[in-house]
C-alpha cells in the first residue's frame, strides 16, 4: 500500500504584504526617479537645479495614476499665506501626498539647496555661474534636510512644515504654521499637460539630460 496521502491540505499561497501609506509614496517617487536618474539628474547635494516645476508635475501625475491624492504648491504662496514677508520668500515648488490618514511632504529637487562642499542648507542663487547659498542649516544638524536628500520625502507634520519653510525662507518666528493651514492655501495646476507627463512616465518621451 502506498504511503502517499492524497488529501493533504493545499500549501497556502504566500499573501501579498499589504501596502502602507509610506510604501505607496515610495512607489510614486520611484516612478519619477526612473525618469530623472537616467537623464543625469541625481538626487545629490547641489543637483536638480531649476527642475522643481517638472519634478512636482511628475510626482503629482504619478500619484494620480496610482490613485493617490497629491497637491503641488508654490513655496512663495505658502510662505506668504502663513504671514511671511515677500523679501524672505523663496520661489520653489513641492508636493504633498495624502494617503491612509497620513500626509507626506515630497520634494524631489530639494537637493539643489544643499551645498555639496559644506553640507550647508538654504536658498540658492546663481552669481556669475556659481551657486551661492543663503545658509539656514546644515545636513549635520537637520534631520529633515538629510531625509529629503536621502529619500525625497518625509511624513508631514506641523513641525516638519515649519522647519521646511525655515530652511528655505529663513524667518518663521511668530508664524502660525500648520498642515491644516496649508490645506486652505490654493495649490498649483500642472505646468505640463497630462499627455506630456504620461509620455515621460511611460518612457515615450525622453527627459532632458542634465547639461
Structural topology:
Blueprint: H1 21-36, H2 52-65, E1 69-74, H3 75-81, E2 93-99, E3 102-106, E4 120-127, E5 130-138, H4 143-150, E6 153-155, H5 158-169, H6 179-182, H7 194-201
Antiparallel strand pairs: 1-2, 2-3, 3-6, 4-5
Polypeptide structure, described:
The protein is α+β, with helices and mostly antiparallel strands. It has one domain. 33% of the residues lie in helices and 18% in strands. It is built from seven helices and six strands, in the order H-H-E-H-E-E-E-E-H-E-H-H-H. The protein has a four-stranded antiparallel sheet. The chain has a two-stranded antiparallel sheet with strand order 4-5. The radius of gyration is 21 Å and the shape is globular. The termini are far apart. The model is unreliable at 1-11 (pLDDT under 50).
Briefly characterize the structure:
33% of the residues lie in helices and 18% in strands. By secondary structure, it is of the alpha+beta class.
Strand neighbour order, sheet with most strands: 1-2-3-6
Largest sheet: 4 strands, antiparallel
Euclidean distance between termini CA atoms: 76 Å
Mean pLDDT: 89
Q: Structural class, please?
A: alpha+beta
Globular, elongated, flat, extended or rod-shaped: what is the shape? globular
The secondary-structure element order is HHEHEEEEHEHHH
Number of strands: 6
Amino acid at each position: 500500500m502506498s504511503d502517499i496521502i492524497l488529501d493533504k491540505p493545499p500549501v497556502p499561497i504566500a499573501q501579498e504584504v499589504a501596502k502602507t501609506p509610506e510604501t505607496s509614496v515610495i512607489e510614486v517617487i520611484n516612478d519619477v526617479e526612473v525618469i530623472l536618474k537616467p537623464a543625469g539628474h541625481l538626487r545629490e547635494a547641489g543637483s536638480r537645479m531649476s527642475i522643481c516645476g517638472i519634478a512636482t508635475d511628475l510626482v503629482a501625475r504619478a500619484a494620480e495614476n496610482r490613485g493617490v491624492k497629491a497637491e503641488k504648491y508654490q513655496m512663495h504662496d505658502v510662505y506668504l499665506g502663513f504671514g511671511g514677508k515677500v523679501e524672505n520668500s523663496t520661489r520653489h515648488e513641492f508636493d504633498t501626498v495624502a494617503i491612509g490618514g497620513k500626509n507626506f511632504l515630497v520634494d524631489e529637487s530639494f537637493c539643489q539647496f544643499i551645498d555639496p562642499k559644506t553640507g550647508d542648507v538654504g536658498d540658492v542663487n546663481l552669481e556669475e555661474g556659481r551657486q551661492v547659498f543663503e545658509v539656514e542649516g546644515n545636513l549635520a544638524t537637520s534631520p529633515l534636510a538629510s531625509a529629503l536628500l536621502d529619500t525625497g520625502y518625509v511624513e508631514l507634520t506641523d513641525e516638519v512644515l515649519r522647519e521646511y519653510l525655515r530652511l528655505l525662507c529663513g524667518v518663521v518666528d511668530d508664524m502660525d504654521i500648520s498642515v491644516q493651514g496649508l490645506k486652505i492655501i490654493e495649490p498649483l495646476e500642472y505646468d505640463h499637460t497630462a499627455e506630456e507627463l504620461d509620455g515621460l512616465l511611460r518612457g515615450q518621451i525622453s527627459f532632458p539630460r542634465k547639461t
